[in-house]
């Protein structure tokens, strides 16, 4: 009598089917994960502008100077966008609103041109005292996409 050597065809087919099912489940989750990881560059790009606006408001000599701190944020945003890979600096949406101080950063087409927004609360044009603390409200199309 001969011993059976190796696997039967049905056993190999079952293994292939299991691997295919696992790949079908894991691949979309992995693609979403990589897009979220790439979008972290977009979120990080807003950091210098946020810090510049906060420092300007805290150190302003008077209310008029504090309300003009958006320019400091715009300069910091422009300086921070050196050689971006996933941030679209050419987009008109990547800017700091000169009235309210809201920061908007737009991703490249690789990330579906999603936007990330940070809005100070209170807005710069509604500040009531020098050195007033700002709270930041997140927004943008990235929330619905699940990137931020």
Automatic annotation (TrEMBL):
GO terms for cellular component: type IV pilus. The chain crosses the membrane at residues 6-30. Keywords: Fimbrium, Membrane, Methylation, Transmembrane, Transmembrane helix. It comes from the Bacteria. GO terms for biological process: cell adhesion; type IV pilus-dependent motility. Belongs to the N-Me-Phe pilin family. This is Prepilin-type N-terminal cleavage/methylation domain-containing protein.
């Amino acid at each position: 009598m001969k011993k059976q050597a190796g696997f039967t065809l049905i056993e190999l087919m079952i293994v292939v089917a299991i691997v295919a099912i696992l790949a079908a489940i894991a691949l979309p989750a992995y693609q979403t994960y990589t897009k979220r990881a790439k979008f972290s560059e977009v979120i990080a790009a807003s950091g210098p502008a946020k810090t510049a606006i906060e420092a300007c408001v805290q150190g302003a000599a008077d209310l008029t100077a504090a309300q003009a701190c958006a320019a400091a944020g715009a300069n910091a945003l422009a300086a921070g966008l050196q050689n971006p890979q996933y941030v679209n600096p050419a987009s008109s949406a990547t800017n700091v609103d000169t009235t309210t101080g809201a920061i908007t950063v737009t991703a490249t087409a690789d990330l579906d041109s999603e936007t990330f927004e940070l809005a100070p609360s209170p807005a710069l044009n509604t500040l009531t005292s020098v050195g007033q603390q700002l709270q930041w409200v997140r927004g943008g199309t990235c929330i619905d996409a699940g990137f931020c």
